Amino acid sequence: MAELFSESGQSSDVGGSAPTLRGVFIPGIDRATFPDGLGLVTPLGGGGSLRNYTGYGPSAGGSPDFTQLLDLTNALGSFGSGSGFDVSFEGFVGPTGPPGPPGPSGLPGTGFSFGTPSYGLLALPDDLEKIDGLVTDADRMLYTSGYTLFEEGWEWTERQPAGDSDGQWQAVASDLDGSNLIAAARSGRLWTSSDSGVNWTERQPAGASNKFWTGVASDDTGLKLIAVEDSGVWTSVDSGVNWTERQPTGGATTKWNSVASDSDGSNLIVSKEGSGGQIYTSSDSGVNWTLRDPSGAGDKNWASVDSDSDGSNLIAAYGPGRLYTSSDSGDNWIERQPAGASDHTWRDVVSDNDGSNLIVGNSTRLWTSSDSGVNWTERQPAGNNNYNWWALVSNSDGSVLMAGISTGRLYASTDSGVSWEETQPAGDGDKEWRGLAADSGGHYIIAGVNTGRLYTSIPPISYSQATWAETDVTQVARNFLDDLTQAAQQTTIGLGTGDSPEFTGLTVSGLTASRITATGASKELVSLAKPLIIDEGGTGLSTITNHGILLGSGTAAITPLGVASNGQLPIGSAGADPVLAALTGTTNQITVTNGVGSITLSTPQDIHTTASNFTVAGATISDLTQGSVVFAGASGAISQDNSNLFWDDTNNRLGVGVNSGFDPRVGITISGDMDILHTATEPDDHAFEVDVDAATLGDVKAIDIVYTTGILVAGRDEGIILVNIDETVATGGDVFGLEILSTDGSAEIYGMKVGAVISPIRQDSGTFANPTTATDNTTGPADVAAMKDGDIGTTTAIFENQNEYILIGAAAAFQEVEFILTTGSSGAGIKPTFWYSTAGAHQFTQFTPVDGTNAFRNTGVVAWDASDLTSHGINTDTGTYDIKVIRTRSSLSTPPVLGYAKTAATVEYLWDKNGDVNINSLTLATVAAEGSDVDKFLVDSSGVVKYRTGTQVLSDIGGQAQGDVLDDLNILGAVVSDGQFLVGTGAGAFAYESGA
């Protein structure tokens, strides 16, 4: 004969393990659900065995006492021929929670019939057995002789969120228990369900139109949702009723592809594919985002991302490309190689709750890992062939997995991928499986088909069958059964290991009143002695002195030490009990003051850590290194950093960032950068002052700069001393880039001297004007008006993320751009790279100008030579000559804010190394006499010197034609007639006179 027992599907009390005890089960002493028995009812009489399968509930075939379902563990049955006691149970019900699938209508179990006469203990095991009666021959009993396990497959139900028609179901997600679901259709709509897929509600984050939905995710409650489509990211905190658009890239249109959420919806990860493909994470439910770059190589076609339950362990893959994991929420990433060190077209990646169990699939194979991606095992659900594994899902611990092939079948595993079985939600045919999601236990699965339907499922149900046989009962066993039967007759609560009896009152004979009880050597209850000894958890004392201190004495009673006075403490004494004594001080060193419950230690010298005058003569601190300059660390303790702050006591020289190789002169040596940040507090304030006394010595320098150009190439400009002046708020006054003053004396003082091969001066002359083009992270031609309006009151946040850029352009080529910032970038700046446009659509070549903005940390001018830009041309996207600036720094707490930018096209004037001067004009206060009468310089009325020939000079001063005579440079005119001559008139003038 055989019985069926439930292995899954009802509750934790339903059987789960194969029977291990092949023998007797005593109701009231044991339980059917424990793995040491199967709920046998052992008869004490003789007769045959009979199987009987009945319906639900007790039948009144015997005494009513035997029909109480909650009180049958003590029943001793005596049945004659023809009578009977019938009890049976219904089949188990489906799991609780959201309306689950109904349980089977009832499983045939154990049936027993009592013959004449028969005595036995009756019980109702809480699995699927049915008890009718049992009779065996005298001195015989039943035992399990065989055990077989049976399983039913996955049970699927088609769901129709959008009606009875095919949809391109691309993405699905589930909450913790599978009640709240969300499903997204590519080129379709978004739907949610709160009853495990029975009913659905359309959601419209992006309006009442079809969208290219590509990914959805849910928190554990189904309240916080996130959904992405080609051009947008949306989040909801009320199960999809209301939605908020999020902008990880600052509003730029992009192709979002995958999304994942942690258990409470606070930590999110999204990815995009195609041009500009990046990964972003958020720790505040999507309000703010951080760019992540696992590959370290910029844009990638990120295909899939996933997260553990707290957002710390992440996994991401791009294709064709590589696979990466992170254990610190995306700050750092490690490349993983399930398929070797080569690129693969990854389709889907999935993580369990703690990120240890992973499953990943690409266009050919499937892998699992149980150690967060360190080691991998290839899985072959469909055999050793290449398949396009597009859809994957895992339960919370990675034990239940499901994997779908694009244009193929669906496979499930309940042992972390070791073994697989095909399941057929849509019948025996290939489908384009795209979306899979599961509850935490893997009990409820939702699966979506591209150009197909949506399905939900419950996992397989298993049953076991036990086969019974009879064997002889020895006299010893018979006596044991009689004793157990007698014990069971005396109580209605049972004595089983699984029972939890409750008593409103209990009297036990054989104990002493008002004593603590314990179990004796035979596990009987006994009364303990009074007072309770140490070995039994007592003190061995009847009374204890008030306020006294107690001492241990091994197994003997506790010894009172006595009552302590003010300031007394138990002080150890080697080999003896401690004694009560007070602390004593030392004259001129420590003073002890005893109080009520207190001891105060003080020093008569009044030295303490907060003393304003604390002097120690000749103090030595042993753990300091020679030469270290000590300072207060973060905790306030004295600290040292010998490699970066060092005092050379031999040369009296301080080293900052260096501790060796000093100039053997008194001073300071700094290795590295040095910034001086200063805001004036009074007139004639100095941010950096050098006072030098040459002391009549020669070759003394106040500032000595040794500058090595290295391999400097065309297109790069260097400024050894860069003075960048921000005068945007100035209304007048003079600013001198270099001012040199000297007292009177006999030395020849020169403002500047340059040596051989050095051109003394080069001037770039021009004025700043509003640019024609100004764009923020776009190729154009759309301008940002506030960037080029010359108004500092209208601002634009720029360089908000790594790799963002701006374009500044003008109709003609230019050589300088001023950037007026209202907020400078934090830290070391944006780490900019500079590019100039060449002919074509958004074609740029990198160059290195002089950056007066200090990486956009301050307002300043960026300048270059026209010759540096060898092929500067018009960007056809904007129609202007453009300069492009790109932010390359990945992490920046405060990006810059731009008031406006202006450009300047400059003209170059030069005093070169040969002494030749190219200037626009020259004004001289005094012109010395020129000895030559061939070529002359004249100064016109505006003070401009002109180079003129002799003929031009005569013309300039009114020179006349032949025959004209000049009278004090006044024209006297030509001779009128023959014989005329000049005669003085006496008035300082001349006149023509004739002989008459």
Structural account:
With 996 residues, the protein is mostly beta strands. It is built from two helices and 66 strands. The longest helix has 15 residues, at 475-489. It starts with a strand and ends with a strand. InterPro entries: Sialidase_sf (IPR036278), WD40/YVTN_repeat-like_dom_sf (IPR015943). This is Photosynthesis system II assembly factor Ycf48/Hcf136-like domain-containing protein.
Short key terms for the protein model shown above:
flat, 66 strands, six-stranded antiparallel sheet, Methylamine Dehydrogenase, Chain H, WD40/YVTN_repeat-like_dom_sf, disordered N terminus, mainly beta, Photosynthesis system II assembly factor Ycf48/Hcf136-like domain-containing protein, Sialidase_sf, 996 residues, 16-stranded antiparallel sheet
Shape: flat
- Stretches where pLDDT is under 50 for at least 5 consecutive residues are 1-138, 488-499, 928-934
Helix coverage percent of residues? Answer: under 10%
Please state roughly what percent of the residues sit in beta strands, choosing from under 5%, 5-15%, 15-25%, 25-35%, 35-45% or over 45%: 25-35%
Overall average residue pLDDT? 76
CATH class of the domain at 163-455: Mainly Beta
Counting DSSP H or I runs of 4 or more residues, the number of helices is 2
Query: Termini distance?
Result: 178 Å
The CATH superfamily name of the domain at 163-455 is YVTN repeat-like/Quinoprotein amine dehydrogenase
Q: Rg to the nearest angstrom?
A: 49 Å
**CATH topology value of the domain at 163-455:** Methylamine Dehydrogenase, Chain H
Q: Would you identify the CATH architecture of the domain at 163-455?
A: 7 Propeller
Structural class: mainly beta
Major sheet summary line:
16 strands, antiparallel
The count of strands amounts to 66
